[in-house]
Design brief:
This protein has helices at about 40-45, 85-95, 115-180, 185, 200-240, 250-255, 260-280; strands at about 20, 25, 30-35, 55-60, 75-80, 100-110. The chain is α+β, with helices and mostly antiparallel strands.
Length: about 280
């Protein structure tokens, strides 16, 4: 049987066993072991439980069967090991706490029968062992979160000055392309006042990163608009210089006759009339 693969995201070690505080009652002692990864048989075989009268076990783990839906099926089971109904009581604890893993409660019998209260001891020991695991997991998660926050803060301390430099370069480029150095439109460069980012908390650094990214995005859009406007202006200038001259109207070309021209026209008209009369006289 292949061993269960350990998830890399789990903060606990695969071999950790979480131990409950002992419960003593009329010469009987109860101690529980819980493990999120080890099998129940491995816990029952632990050296500390070798001299125990009973090693009651229960487990809850993913099933090898596959459901039609994405929901993961869980397999549960128990081993009374001579303590009748004890295993079922432990199995119920795992179901109620929605915990996966195995739990074993060892009992050293002292010669006095305890009656139904023994089931309370079994369940309380199991819950205590599970609680130890939960608290250890929370402590481990907090340590991981602290390390992640420290790494993120270091990244932001290195990144934000680079963002500031990018904003300075882009603002200068925008001023050049739009040919407007107005501070109302472009604003002043943040390089005039350098912040000591190492003194700021992580939450502030994260907000500043969002602000810097938004500023860079806005400037890039303004640069795109400026480039588009300059291209449109260049196209209009080219169209104006290459347009052909409009020909003069015919009314401007047909000038009025001068006084000499009018005199010549009158002479020609007189000659034409005289020639016409001569022809009539001949007839």
């Amino acid at each position: 049987m292949s061993q269960k693969r350990v998830r890399s995201v789990s903060p606990e070690s695969p071999s950790l066993i979480f131990r409950s505080s002992p419960i003593d009652d009329r010469s009987s002692t109860f101690v529980a072991f819980y493990s999120p990864t080890l099998a129940a048989k491995e816990l029952q075989a632990h050296a500390e439980f070798k001299s125990a009268s009973h090693r009651v076990a229960a487990w809850r783990k993913p099933s090898s069967q596959r459901a039609l839906t994405a929901q993961c099926l869980l397999e549960t089971g128990h081993d009374d090991d001579g303590e009748k109904y004890g295993g079922k009581a432990l199995e119920k604890v795992l179901i109620e706490t929605e915990i996966e893993g195995a739990v074993v409660v060892a009992r050293w019998y002292g010669g006095v029968m305890l009656g139904p209260v023994r089931f309370d001891h079994l369940k309380n020991c199991a819950r205590d062992a599970i609680l130890q695991w939960t608290q250890d997991r929370e402590r481990s998660a907090k340590k991981i979160k602290v390390r992640e926050d420290e790494a993120e803060k270091e990244r932001l301390i290195q990144t934000l000055p680079e963002r500031d430099q990018s904003i300075t370069v882009l603002r200068d480029l925008l001023a050049d392309k739009s040919q407007q150095a107005s501070s109302a439109l472009i604003g002043k460069s943040p390089s005039a006042k350098t912040l000591d980012y190492s003194t700021l908390p992580l939450a502030t650094l994260e907000k500043l990163e969002h602000v810097r990214d938004a500023t860079i995005g806005w400037i890039l859009k303004q640069i795109e608009k400026a480039e588009k406007s300059r291209k449109e202006e260049s196209g209009m200038k080219i169209a104006t210089t290459s347009a052909p001259e409009t020909p003069k109207a015919s009314a401007d070309i047909d000038e009025h006759p001068t006084k000499d021209e009018k005199s010549k026209i009158g002479d020609l008209e007189s000659q034409d009339k005289g020639s016409a009369l001569s022809k009539l006289d001949g007839v």
